[in-house]
Structure formats: C-alpha cells, structure tokens
C-alpha cells in the first residue's frame, strides 16, 4: 500500500498539471492558430510540484506536532462574544483574545508564571492558540519558503544560471507574496480548522489550482 506521502505527491501532481494546462489555454486564447500544448513547460511545472510536495508535507506534520489540535466551537463562540461593541470599547476583547490563545482562564491569569510553568507548555494551550500559531507561520515563514523554492526551482529547470536565479528571487519575491496574501489566508483558515494534517498539502493544491494558474503564467508557461 502506498504511503501517505506518495499518495499526496500523486494527487498534487495531477492538480498541478491541470493548473498548468489551464494556464496555457488562458495564455494562448488571444493568439491565432490552434492550441498547442507546451509539453516542456508542463513537465517543468510538474517537476517543480513533485520537488516541493515533500517539503510542505513534512512541514505541515512538524507544525501540527508543535501546535496540535483545532480551535473548539466554545473557543470560537467565546471569541465572537468578546468582540461585541461593549467589549471592544472596554478593550476586554484584548484580554479575552490573549487568554484564549494562551489557553488560560481568569483564575489561571492570577498565578505567577514561575509557579506553574506546565500550563504554558504547548500541549496544554488551547486549540485557538494552535490555530493562530499555525496560521501565522503559514503566512510568513512557509510563504517565504515556498516563493523562494518556486522561483529557484522553476528557473533552474529552465536552465538559468545561479546568478540569474538570485536576481529573479529578488525581483519576483514581493509581487508573488502580495498575490499569495490575497488568497492564502482563506485557505489557511480552512486548513487549520477542519482539514486533517495528512490531507493539507492536497487540499492546498486543490484550492490552489487558480494559484497554480497564476504561478504558471508568472513563469511564462
């Protein structure tokens, strides 16, 4: 029976192929003549996908191991209640939000940190804390990592030199990150509230077919 990583690579590769073909269709729709598939570009994009899937697969596992669990309905309900107009005006929402993330109660807040270090351990913190941390790292560290990997790998596959690849990293990082931040927060919210850890890379690939089209067009399919 194939491993979960193998299944994830296979599924993500199919989705990446679909996004690249759609990108080629979009790119050539205004050109005269029949559609011609750019096989080399398709293979380059699929190869890039195969190389980055294991990185993201183990990243998601490591992130879940460090910050396990999902926010509970009670935590979400309490957070929404804390965002009432009265609470916002009194800044009570800030204390409620911090307490929810840290997994503390009013009684626990009164205890000095030195007297009860165990309650600050990751395994004892709330599901909301886990969600916030995973969301934060997905938008920052993982985002930067994946953008650099995309620019580096896709251009190496095209035969660019090391110097040219570094120039492209500096040139392309900001516009790609800006585009990523327009869609990724929604995907991350779903990933870290309802999607099991071993399905997150495939889920992101499925949600990212449009993102894959963008990357394919950015790479000049």
UniProtKB/TrEMBL annotation:
Superkingdom classification of source: Eukaryota
Membrane topology qualifier: Multi-pass membrane protein
Listed GO CC annotations: peroxisomal membrane
Main location: membrane
Keyword Membrane appears in the UniProt entry: yes
Keyword Transmembrane assigned: yes
Keywords: Membrane, Transmembrane, Transmembrane helix
InterPro entries from the UniProt entry: Mpv17_PMP22
Chain segments annotated as coiled-coil in the UniProt record: none
Annotated TM spans: 39-59, 135-157, 201-220
Pfam family of the protein (one): Mpv17_PMP22
Subcellular location: Membrane
Protein family membership: Belongs to the peroxisomal membrane protein PXMP2/4 family.
Protein name: Uncharacterized protein
UniProt organism field: Penicillium cinerascens
